[in-house]
C-alpha cells in the first residue's frame, strides 16, 4: 500500500523563523509556497531525498481550521506517505479500524490528492495519505 515518504509536515506559529532554520541552518531549498485563504502559509523545504512541509496559520477562517486543530491536539508534526491508490488505502485503513478525517480524497497543498487518518486514532504521529499527480516527485 505504501511506496514512500512524501514529506514530514511541521505546523508552526513561527513561519519565517522555521523557514530560515530549514533553509539557512540545514541547507534546504524552499520549493513550492502557497497561501490558503490569506490565512495559512505553506512552504515545502526540500533536500535531495526528502522535504518538510511548513504550515503556519496566521488567523482562523479557512477550511483547514478543523484539521489543523486536530493535528495540533496530537502533534505539530505529521508523516505524509505515498500510496498508489488513495481510495483503496482509505478503505483498507477504515476496515482495519482506523477512522479517516477525510472520507474522500481532497486536493492537497501541492500537486497531489490527500486524506488524513483521524489524527488521534493512530499511535505516534498523525498520518496523511498522498496520491501523487504525475508532475510531483517524492
UniProtKB/TrEMBL annotation:
Domain of life: Archaea
Cross-referenced InterPro entries: Glyas_Bleomycin-R_OHBP_Dase, VOC_core
Pfam family, one: Glyoxalase_4
Natural source organism: Saliphagus infecundisoli
Residue ranges constituting the VOC domain according to the UniProt record: 4-132
Coiled coil stretches, renumbered: none
Protein name: VOC family protein
Amino acid at each position: 500500500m505504501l511506496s514512500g515518504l512524501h514529506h514530514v509536515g511541521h505546523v508552526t506559529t513561527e513561519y519565517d523563523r522555521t523557514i530560515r532554520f530549514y533553509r539557512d541552518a540545514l541547507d534546504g531549498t524552499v520549493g513550492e509556497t502557497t497561501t490558503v485563504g490569506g490565512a495559512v502559509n505553506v512552504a515545502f523545504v526540500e533536500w535531495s531525498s526528502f522535504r518538510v512541509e511548513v504550515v503556519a496559520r496566521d488567523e482562523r477562517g479557512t477550511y483547514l481550521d478543523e484539521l489543523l486543530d486536530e493535528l495540533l491536539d496530537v502533534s505539530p508534526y505529521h508523516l505524509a506517505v505515498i500510496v498508489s491508490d488513495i481510495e483503496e488505502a482509505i478503505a483498507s485503513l477504515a476496515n482495519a479500524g482506523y477512522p479517516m478525517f477525510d472520507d474522500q480524497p481532497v486536493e492537497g497543498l501541492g500537486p497531489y490528492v490527500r486524506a488524513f487518518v483521524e489524527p488521534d486514532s493512530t499511535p505516534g504521529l498523525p498520518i496523511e495519505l498522498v496520491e501523487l499527480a504525475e508532475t510531483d516527485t517524492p
